[in-house]
Each structure stands twice: as structure tokens, then as C-alpha cells.
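URGENT: need a sanity check before tomorrow's submission.

F., can you look over the DUF1285 domain-containing protein record below? I want to be sure the sequence and structure line up before it goes out.
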Amino acid sequence: MAIDLALLQQHATADGLPPVEEWHPDFCADMDLVIRADGTWVHEGGEFRRPALMKLFSRILRLDDDGCYYLVTPVEKVRIQVEDAPFVILAAEVRDDSVVMVTNCEEVITLGREHPMRVRAAHGGASEIPYVLVRKNLWARLHRNVFYQLVELAEQRTEQNVEGMWLQSQNEWFCLGSL
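C-alpha cells as predicted:
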């Protein structure tokens, strides 16, 4: 299945995301594309070597009500596999009263009401880790290095009846993990 890259380029503007929630094409096919739990994109057994293409595809990614992930254009809808979360937070820094994060697809988000953090079971269910909402219902897991960096900034406290390590951003408290 080949996605029309020229059509994608038309909708991939620098100042906003394509309106994938408004597009309702018929399902076309399954694509041999897997986003691994570590954030690696694998197509037909080989790792993506073109970051620009990965970034472009990430902009048309959607999680539908059926629990499946799709790459969606105005005329095509192809299903892909996501092992855990489609994004990984690779960097974080404090700016004023906010924690600003960068995903593996170079999307910059600020931890807060629009981009909350939730702790849930990781891929495989062995442990619970924090995830951050990137957009719509697409989440990013924290890279281990970022997690430890944020733990250094966190406070041990009780919020929302949970004793744990809490991080403040944009006057909101977010749990990194319970104690």
C-alpha cells in the first residue's frame, strides 16, 4: 500500500496539523509499519531511515474508536501497528513555571491541562510508567532518561489522595508514580 506523499505534503503545513479527525475515507489496507515500544518505526522489517518521513506520517496518525491506529489522508486510510504508545518523550526542560517536552517526532508540547500526564501499565504490563497526551488520544511514553530527570524535579507529596512523586507544570500537579 503506497500513501500519496504529494497529497500529504499539501496538508503538512508548518503552522498546524492536518485535520485528520475530519477525514473519513474508506479503509484501504494494512501497512507493514510498526511503531515499537521504544519509539522506533519499522517498515517491512527495516527501521525508518528518513526522519522527515516519520515526522510527516506522525502528523496523519489517528487512533480510532476500534482501538486501531491509522495513517489517514482525505482519500486513504491504512492501519498500522503500535506496540505501546506512538510517541516517546526524548527531552524535557523547565521554562518558567512549565515543563516543555519534545517527542521523537519533534513535536513540542507543554505539560499542563491540554497535555496531561497519566501513569498506567507499560507495554507488557510489568510496571507502571507516566504517559503524556500529545494530541487527541495519542500518547507518548517518557524515555527512561527523561523520567529520571523529572524525578529530580519532582516533590514527594500527596495529591488527589495519592502519595507519590509529583511534578508541577502550569500550576497543575502531575504524578510520576505512587510510593
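My own read: The first strand starts at residue 29 and ends at 35. Residues 88 and 140 are 5 Å apart (CA to CA). If you see anything odd, call me.
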